[in-house]
């Protein structure tokens, strides 16, 4: 991540620290799925198009199992310079890329193919405009910064272009940071977020890896329990 350091946001720092711990015990399934995204990215780039991903959920923490769904954010440019939000419902390219990726997964893994959930998609045309317009109230821009703060990226080189544009405008970044703090406060209080950490700790235990006491305390501190 090339966005300015989130030195004032202890919650995001704690989250990233916990993620690094779980990623140090990454599952084989996680490594395989990340490779799938890298292969797909190369395929799209070879065809002259652009795509990047941010990974969420268990794969973000390196704790995916064969039964895990894969939740992602997809970044691409909508066709013909189209502006605004894009998604499966109104963007042919998003739908096409999902179909192509699932075909690749089926080819690579056959009976071990897995479900792909596009939880959000970012139109890079609109993102670039919002950054240039210094639109700190843009929901799309705030979401981009949020994902880049906590997620695991594939084809980060493409995303760095937009991170650098934001970094060069510190007043814009400072305003966005306030919105990020509000987002994170809401997530930490959710029962689903708490459940996820217990689930990841359980997966380590299943492999005979006991969660260190210091790490258990850090999780409790982060979740404010």
Q: Sheet with the most strands?
A: 4 strands, mixed
Numbering strands along the chain, what is their spatial order in the largest sheet? 3-2-1-4
Q: Please provide the ordered H/E string of secondary-structure elements.
A: HHEHEHEHHEHHHH
Oligomer: single chain
Structural class of the helix and strand makeup?
alpha+beta
Protein model, in words:
- It contains ten helices and four strands; from the N terminus they run ααβαβαβααβαααα.
- It is α+β, with helices and mostly antiparallel strands.
- It has one domain.
- The chain has a four-stranded mixed beta sheet with strand order 3-2-1-4, sandwiched between helices.
- Helix 4 links the parallel strand 2 and strand 3.
- It is globular, with a radius of gyration of 18 Å.
- The relative contact order is 0.16.
Give a short summary of the structure.
The chain has 10 helices and 4 strands; from the N terminus they run ααβαβαβααβαααα. With 225 residues, the protein is of the alpha+beta class.
Q: How is this fold's topology laid out?
A:
Blueprint: H1 10-23, H2 28-46, E1 52-55, H3 57-60, E2 70-76, H4 92-109, E3 116-123, H5 124-132, H6 139-150, E4 152-154, H7 156-167, H8 170-188, H9 191-206, H10 213-223
Parallel strand pairs: 2-3
Antiparallel strand pairs: 1-2, 1-4
Helix pairs in contact: 1-10, 6-8
Descriptive terms for the model:
4 strands, 4-stranded mixed beta sheet, globular, 225 residues, single chain, alpha+beta
């Amino acid at each position: 991540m090339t966005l300015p350091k989130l030195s004032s946001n202890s919650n995001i720092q704690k989250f990233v620290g916990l993620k690094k711990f779980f990623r140090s015990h990454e599952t084989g399934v996680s490594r395989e799925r990340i490779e799938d995204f890298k292969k797909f990215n190369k395929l799209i780039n070879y065809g002259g198009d652009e795509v990047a991903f941010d990974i969420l959920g268990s794969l973000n923490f390196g704790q995916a199992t064969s039964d895990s769904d894969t939740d992602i954010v997809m970044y691409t440019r909508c066709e013909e310079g189209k502006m605004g939000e894009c998604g499966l419902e109104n963007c042919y390219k998003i739908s096409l890329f999902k179909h192509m990726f699932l075909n690749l997964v089926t080819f690579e893994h056959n009976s071990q193919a897995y479900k792909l959930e596009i939880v959000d998609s970012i139109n890079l045309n609109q993102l670039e405009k919002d950054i240039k317009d210094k639109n700190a109230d843009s929901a799309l821009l705030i979401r981009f910064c949020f994902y880049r703060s906590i997620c695991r990226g594939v084809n980060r080189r493409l995303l760095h272009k937009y991170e650098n544009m934001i970094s060069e405008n510190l007043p814009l970044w400072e305003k966005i940071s306030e919105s990020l703090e509000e987002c994170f406060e809401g997530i930490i209080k959710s029962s689903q977020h708490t459940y996820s950490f217990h689930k990841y700790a359980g997966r380590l235990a299943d492999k005979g890896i006991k969660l260190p006491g210091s790490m258990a305390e850090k999780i409790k501190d982060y979740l404010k329990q």
